[in-house]
Design goal:
There is one protein chain. By secondary structure, the protein is an alpha/beta fold. The protein contains 13 helices and twelve strands. The strands form three sheets. A six-stranded parallel β-sheet has the order 2-1-3-4-5-11, sandwiched between helices. A four-stranded parallel β-sheet has the order 7-6-8-9, sandwiched between helices. The termini are far apart.
Length: 350
């Protein structure tokens, strides 16, 4: 039989109204009582009815995670963020829905309106590039729906989570310079992604600090997908002086580079060093394993959702939390073919 709210109240010796207050995370409950009720819910496997809970508190207890359907829908980055958001929603007894949108669609705003009115969502997690799409943010504000952002370009008044992606990219390119590489190429993602701009700026800054010229022919356009990494790598390999190292703006495109290198008969890392960004599970599933920047995507999803929960529970305005990055040095990067063997290689971490 389904455990009812009244059963939890009877087991803990409190009123059903107190159990309801605990469910709705109201602050007027003593912490000792709250913990006793929560422990009873767990031991009795109590699962509240979302509809009844919403009627009691005028809330839906539903959070929507929005992503741009023009982006890579199979992206491991998005999947990691989704898992992190879901962890927090489960812990706070919220439901979660994942909603793809396409900014190029003429009915974009109508779909946002329908999302809010049909599902009565309490809050939204916004992922890049929607994070900085002003028509969406304005519409959410008009509806009074709070949102938390993943990696927003503009930090003023934003809540959610970010990382210093420019510094991370710069650190990775310095690693390649230290290995003796001088022809270092970069494969960018979508131009409307803040991440694309930050990582390109980091690439340029590292070249400048190393005294190397920025050469536009060594920058290829990708779309954060495996296939676009293959196409971009083929373009770079066709140059009169092809690169000895390629830094792709995410791991999916780096995997495409490695595929294209094998197609051309190049050995990684003997003939070509390859680096990515994000450190998704794919990075260690490739052979050789991929040198990349660890962006803690799942943790970022969790932190953004936690800041949103602070707002939804009325406990604060929420913060923009910055997470650290780290360089994951693996077998896909090595000394440049023409680099002198006596040069000492400095490994940088952050």
């Amino acid at each position: 039989m389904r455990v009812r709210l009244e059963d939890v109240a009877r087991a803990t010796g409190v009123s059903p109204k107190t159990v309801s207050r605990v469910l709705n995370e109201e602050p007027s409950v003593k912490e000792s009582t709250r913990q006793k009720v929560l422990a009873a819910m767990e031991s009795m496997n109590y699962r509240p009815s979302p509809s009844a809970r919403g009627l009691a508190g005028s809330r839906s207890f539903l959070v929507a995670m929005l992503y741009d359907n023009n982006d890579n829908p199979a992206s491991t980055y998005l999947a990691e963020i989704q898992d992190g958001v879901l962890d927090v929603c489960d812990a706070h007894r919220y439901s979660m829905m994942v909603c793809p949108l396409r900014v190029s669609d003429r009915d974009f705003i109508r779909r946002v309106d329908a999302l809010v009115s049909d599902h009565h969502i309490d809050g939204v997690i916004v992922t890049p590039p929607l994070t900085d799409y002003e028509p969406l943010l304005k519409r959410l504000q008009e509806h009074g729906v709070p949102h938390a952002s993943i990696s927003p370009v503009h930090h003023h008044d934003a809540i959610g989570v970010c990382m210093d992606e420019q510094q991370a990219a710069k650190t990775l390119v310095h690693h390649l310079v230290d290995l003796g590489h001088r022809r270092i190429a970069y494969i960018a993602g979508f131009t409307n992604h803040g991440a694309s701009r930050w990582r390109l700026n980091g690439y340029k800054a590292a070249l400048n600090e190393a005294g190397l010229p920025f050469e536009p022919q060594y920058v290829a356009q990708g779309e954060f997908t495996f296939g676009s990494g293959v196409i971009a790598a083929r373009q770079l390999f066709a140059l009169p002086e092809p690169p000895t190292a390629i830094f792709a703006a995410n791991d999916d495109m780096a995997a495409g580079v490695m595929w294209a290198a094998n197609e051309r008969g190049l050995k990684v890392p003997r003939d070509l060093s390859v680096c990515g960004f994000d450190d998704t599970p794919l990075a260690t599933q490739l052979w050789p394993p991929l040198t990349t920047v660890r962006q803690p995507s799942r943790d970022m999803g969790k932190l953004a959702a936690l800041q949103l929960m602070e707002v939804l529970r009325g406990r604060g305005k929420g913060l923009l939390v910055q997470v650290p990055f780290s360089l994951q040095l693996r077998e896909s990067s090595a000394r440049a073919p023409e680099a002198p063997q006596g040069k000492r290689v400095r490994k940088r971490t952050a």
